[in-house]
Specification:
Order of helices and strands: HEEHEHHHHHEHHHHHEHE
Helix content: 40-55%
Number of domains: 1
Strand content: 5-15%
Number of strands: 6
Radius of gyration: 19 Å
Largest sheet: 6 strands, mixed
Length: 304
């Protein structure tokens, strides 16, 4: 099971945006910002792409500058102590459709047929997963789409940094648990889950092109380009954006503020979608009188 947060395409590939609260970073060496509170330490807030391919796995150089200064790493999940069976256990307990319903009845005949054809092109028959809730099937389809594109969580930002932290003895902590992450999707109404599944199934043909644009904008911290990508996703999935992004940002904010009160430095790594936009972490921190500053060009990150 892949990292659950990476299973939603918009989070996995990070079609993200920035507003005026997030400075345009023409001179930035990547999507990393530094935040300092007088009398405390520095938090380096880094935007992640959870899955990358081998050819584009080298991280933007701003990560290296933040890494050298940070005494610890904080990610969405504590990757160092993550139980590989935890996601499977959650799915087994929460992802089954009951009360005589199934995917066919939830989607309706026409939509079921369309989504099934798209899923079969990726190697999955909906009849084989008919008792799974739509959000869980969407995760499976996203996994198949990413594999088709040659993307690998082992090449993603978090896994690279986890391996490096283990090698260098830097502690890792998490902002939330895997149950909390998957619980966001499980808490969606069946109507929203069905829409999520439908959109996920229909994106296979365009994903490669979108990925190229997303990774280019992410690597350059091109906030204008990322804004355009987010607006498209927000319009298509408005009911998902709140619970998946905004609500989690507000839960994470006090934890980041607590890190700023420490006398040492921390690298915080979250999906780039969580950093930007009017309810993004950069804007929320700015609302509290803090000034996120883009980290400038430094030497390239050495691979773990």
């Amino acid at each position: 099971m892949r990292r659950p947060d990476a299973l939603l395409r918009t989070l996995a590939l990070l079609a993200v945006a920035a507003t005026s609260a997030a400075p345009t970073c023409a001179a930035s060496a990547g999507p990393v910002w530094s935040i300092h509170r007088p009398g405390g330490g520095t938090v380096y807030l880094a935007g992640s792409v959870h899955v990358l391919d081998t050819a584009r796995s080298r991280l933007p150089p701003a990560f290296d500058s933040a890494w050298r200064d940070a005494e610890r790493v904080v990610m969405e999940l504590d990757m160092d102590d993550l139980d590989p069976a935890a996601a499977a256990s959650f799915l087994a307990a929460h992802a089954t459709i009951w009360d005589g319903e199934n995917l066919r009845t939830l989607l309706g005949a026409e939509r079921f047929a369309r989504v099934d054809a798209q899923a079969r092109a990726l190697g999955l028959s909906l009849d084989s997963v008919a008792q799974l809730e739509p959000w869980a099937v969407a995760l499976a389809l996203t996994q198949l789409q990413l594999v088709k594109l040659g993307l690998d969580p082992a090449q993603g930002v978090e896994q690279q940094l986890t391996e490096r932290a283990r090698a260098e003895g830097k502690p890792i902590a998490g902002l939330e648990t895997i149950d909390e992450q998957l619980g966001v999707l499980d808490g969606l109404s069946y109507m929203d889950q069905a829409r999520f599944l439908e959109l996920t199934a229909g994106e296979s043909d365009s994903m490669a092109t979108e990925l190229d644009g997303i990774l280019t904008a992410w690597r350059r911290a091109d906030t204008a380009a990322l804004e355009r990508l987010l607006l498209v996703e927000y319009e298509r999935l408005p009911t998902l954006y709140g619970p998946l992004v905004t609500d989690r940002n507000r839960r994470w904010l006090p934890q980041i503020e607590a890190l700023l009160a420490r006398p040492d430095d921390t690298l915080v790594v979250v999906g780039t979608l969580h950093l930007v936009g009017p309810d993004g972490l950069l804007a929320l921190l700015k609302d509290r009188g803090l000034v996120p500053t883009p980290v400038g060009a430094v030497a390239p990150l050495r691979q773990p």
